[in-house]
């Protein structure tokens, strides 16, 4: 038994590793976001600090840390201070069960998928408490929006996941990955012979993920042009910084989940070379491709109106996901009935 | 718990103490505060603690569902209801009334607690599962039990939920009526009146859609 495989050491390493992963992602995805925005809007983006601006996140972090944390008078000071922590904790918890590679997973629970969703649902509560505690009109409007938006989009997301679960028959993310071994045509997204509706399911999942993480075109929580900064209006310094880190952590969790559920996780697209470090490579390639797509979407589409946002969920996505659920069930069970009757 | 983990025997006790402590602390926060949002926060903490207790009792599925449904849905719905209703600061009652109320609350709490404790100590617990209860807390076992042994209660619960949804619809639509009931042909009313959406381009000569007007029925 080596030193690294001792249980306490392993737990400690994963704890530090996940925190570092989230922190590094938050820092450098902000840079990627600003660079991407610059490229799409035909300007250079941050390019002064370091080569091509790669020191910019450090400068931003230092600036945020050096700022005073203001608790404005009239706020619910306890909830006001607690909200950034509450919003940061769930994504860290979700990363516990994400399989990054063949052997790189902090704890492979057999209810991993459910764990990600149950802790993901706390996020809404935290944003809402932050908005409420701020005692600010704009923040409260934003909090109400966050709740109705997240409630609306959680339904199609869970329905889509149920559809997927009917195919996989397990909630362990590591087992779902293992089922998709052997080339990209075995990934759930392309398993058209099992369920021809998989691409529709993926699009619904991705749309809901964008809405759940409050990303443009669905960023109603922080609609700068109408609500100042939404739920974060009264937050300054690192309080605001933590909210932003949590937003990026949620994006990372969402994209990791999409990778595991639809794109084969750490399985290689050609069927070989998916063990060990290669698995990590494939996983991160797929995840970052999705994350960059999220950034690309943000700077390509304008923010929707709130009513069309809710209409999209209640009138299009929910009926569509219910239909996929029913059709998938029929496709899986009708042949059995046929065989039993004949 | 892994055998190589240090202090594993204390760890189990510590986890139980943490879960039980969280539950009790959340419950205390929920009842001691006068701000309703803080009560909901306390309820949330209680539910997290309860989830810990379920996990401790080898039911991880139940634990995660507790978080998903009670924290992720019930608490949020309560807060949403609070946000939509009028702010209602209760007037500070007189000192005597307060003392009386506290005494009554303490009496009721003690009585209920004693009764429950008596029942749980004296009641006949089924020693072995009566053949039907799921042997483990796994999803497959719970699903099988729900669709075979307990299918009637399961269906009854779904009927209750359906009735709740229909009732909510009836209550929510009660205060709405059309401004001019006679104008234009009958159209299916939109579920929400949405003044924010882009105006629909109507063909020339089409009847204008009567506006949905929301009035307070009280």
Radius of gyration of chain A (Å): 21 Å
How many strand units of chain B?
A: 2
The residue fraction in helices of chain A comes out at 55-70%
Q: Uncertain spans of chain A, ≥5 residues at pLDDT below 50?
A: none
Most extensive protein-chain contact, per-chain counts: A-B, 40 and 33 residues
Structural class of chain A: mainly alpha
By CATH, the topology of the domain at 9-87 in chain B is Four Helix Bundle (Hemerythrin (Met), subunit A)
Rounded to an integer in angstroms, the radius of gyration calculated over CA atoms of chain B is: 26 Å
Distance from first to last alpha carbon of chain A:
57 Å
Low-confidence stretches of chain B: 183-211, 213-218
What is the name of the CATH architecture of the domain at 9-87 in chain B? Up-down Bundle
Give the C-level CATH assignment of the domain at 9-87 in chain B.
Mainly Alpha
What spatial form of chain B do the alpha-carbon principal axes imply?
A: extended
Beta strand % of chain A: under 5%
| Major β-sheet strand ordering of chain B | 1-2
Largest sheet report of chain B: 2 strands, antiparallel
What is the N-to-C order of secondary-structure elements of chain B (H for helix, E for strand)?
HHHHHHEE
Give average pLDDT of chain B, whole number.
75
Q: What is the structural class of chain B?
A: mainly alpha
Described by its quaternary structure, the protein is heterodimer
Give helix and strand order of chain A, one letter per element, not per position. Answer: HHHHHHHHHHHH
């Amino acid at each position: 038994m080596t030193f690294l495989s001792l249980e306490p050491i392993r737990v400690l390493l994963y704890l530090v590793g996940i925190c570092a992963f989230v922190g590094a992602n938050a820092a450098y995805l902000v840079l990627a976001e600003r660079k991407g925005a610059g490229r799409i809007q035909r300007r250079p983006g941050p390019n002064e600090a370091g080569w091509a601006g790669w020191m910019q996140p450090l400068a931003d972090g230092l600036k945020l840390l050096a700022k005073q944390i203001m608790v404005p008078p009239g706020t619910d000071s306890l909830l006001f201070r607690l909200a950034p922590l509450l919003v940061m904790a769930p994504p860290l918890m979700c990363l516990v069960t994400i399989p990054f590679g063949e052997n790189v997973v902090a704890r492979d629970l057999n209810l991993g998928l459910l764990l990600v969703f149950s802790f993901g649902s706390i996020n809404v509560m935290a944003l809402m408490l932050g908005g409420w505690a701020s005692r600010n009109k704009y923040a409260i409007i934003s909090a109400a929006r966050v709740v109705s938006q997240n409630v609306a989009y959680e339904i199609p997301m869970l329905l889509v996941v149920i559809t997927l679960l009917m195919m996989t028959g397990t909630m362990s993310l590591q087992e779902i990955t293992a089922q998709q071994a052997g080339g990209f045509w075995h990934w759930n997204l392309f398993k058209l012979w099992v369920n021809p509706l998989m691409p529709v399911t993926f699009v619904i999942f991705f749309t809901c993920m964008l809405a759940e993480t409050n990303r443009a075109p669905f960023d109603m929580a922080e609609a700068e042009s109408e609500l100042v900064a939404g739920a974060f209006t009264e937050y300054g310094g690192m309080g605001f910084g933590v909210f932003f880190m949590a937003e990026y952590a949620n994006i990372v969790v969402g994209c990791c989940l999409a990778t595991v559920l639809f794109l084969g996780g750490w399985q290689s697209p050609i069927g070989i070379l998916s063990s060990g470090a290669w698995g990590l490579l494939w996983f991160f390639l797929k995840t970052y491709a999705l994350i960059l797509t999220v950034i690309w979407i943000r700077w390509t589409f304008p923010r929707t109106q709130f009513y069309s946002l809710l209409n999209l969920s209640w009138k299009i996505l929910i009926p569509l996901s219910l239909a996929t659920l029913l059709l998938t069930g029929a496709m899986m069970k009708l042949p059995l009935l046929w065989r039993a009757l004949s | 718990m892994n055998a190589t983990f240090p202090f594993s025997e204390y760890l189990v006790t510590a986890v139980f103490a943490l879960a039980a402590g969280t539950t009790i602390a959340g419950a205390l926060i929920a009842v001691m505060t006068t701000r309703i949002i803080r009560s909901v926060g306390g309820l949330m903490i209680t539910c997290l603690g309860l989830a810990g207790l379920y996990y401790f009792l080898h039911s991880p599925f139940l634990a995660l569902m507790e978080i998903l449904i009670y924290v992720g849905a019930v608490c949020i719905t309560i807060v949403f209801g609070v946000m939509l209703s009028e702010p209602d600061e209760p007037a500070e009652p007189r000192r005597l009334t307060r003392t009386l109320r506290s005494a009554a609350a303490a009496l009721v709490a003690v009585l209920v607690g004693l009764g429950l404790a008596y029942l749980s100590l004296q009641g006949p617990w089924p020693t072995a599962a009566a053949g039907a209860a799921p042997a483990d807390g796994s999803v497959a076992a719970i699903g099988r039990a729900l669709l075979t042994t307990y299918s009637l209660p399961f269906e009854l619960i779904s009927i209750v939920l359906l009735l709740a949804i229909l009732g909510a619809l009836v209550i929510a639509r009660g205060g709405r009526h059309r401004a001019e009931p006679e104008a234009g042909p009958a159209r299916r009313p939109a579920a929400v009146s949405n003044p924010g959406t882009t105006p629909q381009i109507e063909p020339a000569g089409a009847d204008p859609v009567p506006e949905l007007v929301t009035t307070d029925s009280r």
